[in-house]
Amino acid sequence: MTIFNNSVPDVEGVITSYCDIYSLFNLSGVNQAARLRLSNKDFFKELFFNLHSTLRPHASKLFTTLRSCYPDNCYKVMCKVMQERSFERSNSFLKQAIPYLQAKLSAKKQDSEREIQEIRYGNKDCSSLIDTAEMKYKQSEDEVKAVSIQYAYERGNAYNTISKLTKPLEAAHSREELDKILYLIYNNPELILQISEKEISDSEMLEILDKEHLAQYQEIARVYLLPSQLSHELTTKINNNQILENQYNTLKRKIERAESEIHIIDAEIKVVAAGSGAHLQVHQSNLSREGNLALDLEGATRSVSHLSQCWRSIEDLIDDPAKKTDEALAAIRQAINACTLQDKTDIWRNLYFQCANGVQENEWSEHHFPDFLRELQLQIELVLVKHEQLIERSKKELDNVVPLEEIDQ
After folding, report:
1. Which of 117, 218, 246, 360 has the fewest CB atoms within 10 Å of its CB?
2. Which of 290, 350, 232 is nearest to 81 (CA)?
C-alpha cells in the first residue's frame, strides 16, 4: 500500500525526506497508508530524536503529560512544538485529554474507596480495622472503669487501716516526718517489705526511717501494697486507653476524609466532562511547562557545545596571533551568528557597549571584534554561564519527574 497512486515506497521515501515538519504532519493524515507509513510511534518518534538528539538521554522524562494523554499523536506534536518553539493548543486538542483526566480522577477515587473498604470491612487477610479498633478501645474503657473502682475501694480501706497503724508512730515522729515516711512507703511498698534494719542505717534514701519501728513500717507497707499496685496498673491502662482511642479516632477521620474526597472527585469528574475546571487548566499548564523545559534544555545544551568550541577557537588565536587569519576570524564570526538570536544579540551588543566608546556604526562588533578577542571571549563566557545554569535547573526539574515507560501506539 502506497500513499500516492501509481507510486512505490522508495520514491515516497525520497519525497518524505524533502518534506518539512508541517508537510509531514499534514501528509500523515491524508489516508490509511500515510498513517501507517508516517506513524506516530515509529516514524515521528525516530524523526524527533534524529532532529533533537541532545534530548535522547532524557527521553523517558520529557513530555510525560503529552505522551500519556495523546498516545496516538504525541511525537507528531512534539516535533511541531520543537519546530515552532512554542506550544499552541486549541480547545479541541485540550478536550482530547478529558478521558485521560477522568481516568486519572477515577483511579484516585478508587484509591479512596479501597481505603474505606479496608478500614470498614477488611480483606481476606484481616477483619474490619475500625471494628477491631473500636472493640479494643471499649474493652480498654471497661478495664479502666473496673480498676478505678477497685483502686478507690482499696485506697479507702487502706486509709482507714493506716490511720490506726500510724498512732504508735506519732510519738516517735513529727507530723512532717510522718507524712514523708508515709509517702515513701506508699510509693515503695515492695522495697520497705524487703529491707532490713542494717539497710535502713546504710541507705540515704531510707535515713528518714527509724529502724526500731521497722515492723510498723512494713505493716503499713503491706496495707499500701495493693492500692499502690492498682495505682500503677490504672496509670498503665489509662495510657493504653488513650492510645487505643487515638487509633480508633484516626481510622474514623480517615474514613471521613476519604468520603469527602470521593464527593469532591465526583464533582471534578463532572466539571472535566464539561470541558472546564481546574484540572484542564493544570493540564494546559503542564503541557506548556513540559514544552518549555524541552526547548530550554535543547537550546542550552546546543549553545554550550557550540559556544564552548567558539571560546576555545578564540583562546587559540589569543595564544598564537599567527593563526589570526581571515579564514579563522570568519569562522568565529560565522559561529557566533549561527547561535540563537538571543545569544547572538547578547554577545555582539554587549561587546559593542564594552568596547565601541559610543562609535555609531552598523554591525560594529562584527567588523571590529578581531581587535577585542579577549573581551569577546568574556561575553561568550557570560552566555555560557547562563546556559549552564539553565541546564542545571532543567535537570533538577527532570529529577522530580516520574519516568514514563514507552506506550504502544
Report:
1. 360
2. 290
- Specify the DSSP class assigned to residue 408: P
DSSP H helices, 320-408, are: 326-337, 341-355, 364-368, 373-399
Task: Report the alpha-carbon angle 189-190-194, nearest 5.
Answer: 115
Residues 21 and 154 in one domain: no
Joined together, the cell numbers standing for residue 231 give 495505682
Q: pLDDT-derived band of residue 406, with 50, 70 and 90 as boundaries?
A: low
The residue type of 272 is V
Q: Which three cell numbers stand for residue 202?
A: 546504710
pLDDT at 135: 94
Q: Does residue 59 sit within a domain? A: no
Statement to judge: residues 260 and 357 lie in one domain? no
User: What's the rounded Cα separation, in Å, for the pair 266 and 396?
Assistant: 35
In 199-224, which positions are buried (b, 16+ CB within 10 angstroms) versus exposed (e)? Answer: ebeeeeebeebbeebbebbbbbbebb
Q: Do 133 and 222 lie in a common domain? A: yes
Place of cell 484540572: 279
List, for residues 338-373, the tens digit of each pLDDT value: 888 889 999 999 999 999 988 888 889 989 999 999
Are 139 and 252 within one domain?
yes
Q: Are residues 133 and 267 in the same domain?
A: yes
Q: CA separation (Å) from 288 to 44, 86, 284, 310, 393? A: 20, 8, 6, 32, 17
Sorted by sequence, the CB contacts under 8 Å of residue 36 that are 6+ apart come out as: 1
- Cα 44 from Cα 39, distance rounded (Å): 6
Among candidate residues 333, 303, 328, 311, the one with its CA nearest the CA of residue 377:
311
Residue 407 confidence (pLDDT) above 50: no
Mean pLDDT of the chain: 87
* Enclosing domain of residue 16: 1-38
How buried is residue 169: exposed, middle or buried, by Cβ count under 10 Å (0-12/13-18/19+)? middle
Q: Mean pLDDT throughout 202-211?
A: 75
Work out how many domains the chain is built from and give that number. Answer: 3
Please state the length of the chain.
Answer: 409
CA distance 260 to 331: 66
pLDDT band at residue 408 using 50, 70 and 90 as cut-offs: very low
